[in-house]
Every structure is written in C-alpha cells, then in structure tokens.
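Key result, reporting period 2: structure in, sequence out.
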C-alpha cells in the first residue's frame, strides 16, 4: 500500500474512532467549554473545513474559488448532528481516496500559490501528511475538551492503528 494512502487510512480510522466514542456520549458534542475551541462540534467542523480546503488545493482548484466556497460549506455543515458530520467526513474521505488512487506519483512536486504566504512547492505526499498531522493535533483538542467535561478520550495514536493493522 502506498504510504500516503496508509497515512490517510490512519486518519480515517482515527476520525471514525472519535465519532464512535462521541456517539456514546452525545451530550458532549455541542456542550460549550472555555478552551481553544468552544465545543467538540467546532473542532470537528474545523477539521472538516481544513480537509476540504486541502483536497480542493491539491486537486488544483484556484485559491479564490476555494475561499468563495467556504461560506456555503459552513452553511451546509455548521449545524450538523454527530451522525451528519460523520457522513460529511465519510463523503469527503471517498474523494480523498479517489484522488490518492488516481495519482501515478504521490511524490510529484507541484506549486500552490497563496496570496499571503507566497508559493509552496510540495509533493502530494507531503500535503497528505500535513492533513493527517493536522487531524492528529485537533483530535487531541477533542480529548482535552472531553476531559474538561469529565469524560475520557479514546486512543487514536498512529501506533495504535499500526497494531490493529498488524493483527489483520
């Protein structure tokens, strides 16, 4: 399996693990907290939005078009239930997997221009790794919010995923 696809599969597994846990404690989803994000729901929407933006970016969509689509994305997803948010993630994941599978070379370099940050020359693999790292970081925010609310988190470390793969 391509390493980028394996990393992305880990990202999907970790998100699914979080969603399964949250469905067992639905009262935590929209509960307001004083933290980096105001709720678990806000963290999940942020993760979804960033995953969406990066897929559009690596697909070659112009920056202006991506930015213009964000208000509609928020309108469509900001009030999602846990199940609706999970479905949005699953649908986006199918697009990511199709993108990754369609690439002949995940290490091919390409350029992205951002009006504020300039031009980035990167590979598809590097940006998939960024998406995965970003997800890992914010799943930690979810765990912190859950602990603040008096609940436990769930194990979503990459090594946990590797142990599961090794048992298959």
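The corresponding designed sequence is given below.
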């Amino acid at each position: 399996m391509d390493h980028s696809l394996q990393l992305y599969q880990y990202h999907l597994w970790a998100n699914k693990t979080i969603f399964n846990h949250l469905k067992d404690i639905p009262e935590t989803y929209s509960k307001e907290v004083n933290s980096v994000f105001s709720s678990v729901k806000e963290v999940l929407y942020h993760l979804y939005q960033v995953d969406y933006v990066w897929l559009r970016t690596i697909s070659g969509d112009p920056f202006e078009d991506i930015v213009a689509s964000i208000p509609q994305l928020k309108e469509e997803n900001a009030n999602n239930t846990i199940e609706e948010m999970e479905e949005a993630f699953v649908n986006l994941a199918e697009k990511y997997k199709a993108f990754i599978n369609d690439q002949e070379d995940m290490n091919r370099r390409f350029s992205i221009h951002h009006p504020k940050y300039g031009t980035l020359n990167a590979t598809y693999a590097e940006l998939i790794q960024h998406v995965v790292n970003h997800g890992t970081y914010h799943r930690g925010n979810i765990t912190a919010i859950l602990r603040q609310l008096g609940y436990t988190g769930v194990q979503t470390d990459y090594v946990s995923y590797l142990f599961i793969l090794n048992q298959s």
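The chain has six helices and two strands. The chain has one domain: 3-167. This case is discussed further under Risks and Mitigation.
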